Amino acid sequence: GDSVTQKQGQVTLSEDDFLFINCTYSTTTYPTLLWYVQYLGQGPQLLLKVTTANNKGISRGFEATYDKGTTSFHLQKASVQESDSAVYFCALDRYGSSGNKLIFGIGTLLSVKP
Amino acid sequence: EAAVTQSPRNKVAVTGGKVTLSCNQTNNHNNMYWYRQDTGHGLRLIHYSYGAGSTEKGDIPDGYKASRPSQENFSLILELATPSQTSVYFCASGDYRGYSGNTLYFGEGSRLIVV
After folding, report:
1. What distance in Å separates the CA atoms of residue B80 and residue B43, rounded to the nearest whole number?
2. Beta carbons of A53 and B96 less than 8 Å apart
């Protein structure tokens, strides 16, 4: 069945460090791949999405790239700030159903030290 | 501004008791979802709905029921609560967008403790 694997449970960085979070997926349909961010005490919110048509998404300084060959899509940011501290979820949205069901990874807790 | 509101935000229930978590959305979205969030598991889909009167089982529906009486409201019901259902529950709404995918709008969560 469809699945998403996000192995990094926690990442600790200092301000201005480079961020890289990897996610792999498995599906038999055309995927839309998404990254959601959850700040402390809030619900998750969409950060960016990548489709098979565009291969890349950019939002708020974050960039996500999709690699069909390795069935992976990773999230990166050149220079993190303390305000980026949050939980980041990758998610798979499967095209072909009248109502989409997202499958989420386990989430990566990013802690950025000032 | 998209809005999904959940109630109660915090709840302590006794084992074997009935719990109802409520969700209201003002986005006029057709689809609504209930997820639970647990450390090491991320967000897991319990039930979802395509519109008023419809409910569908998600990936972990056992022990839960759902009700969608109207476009705006979607409830999650635990008829006989158990300690394993202690979790944070999130409601979300969204609309189907084909290749563009489905952006979900989440509420702020309901923290449930079953003792």
Report:
1. 22
2. no
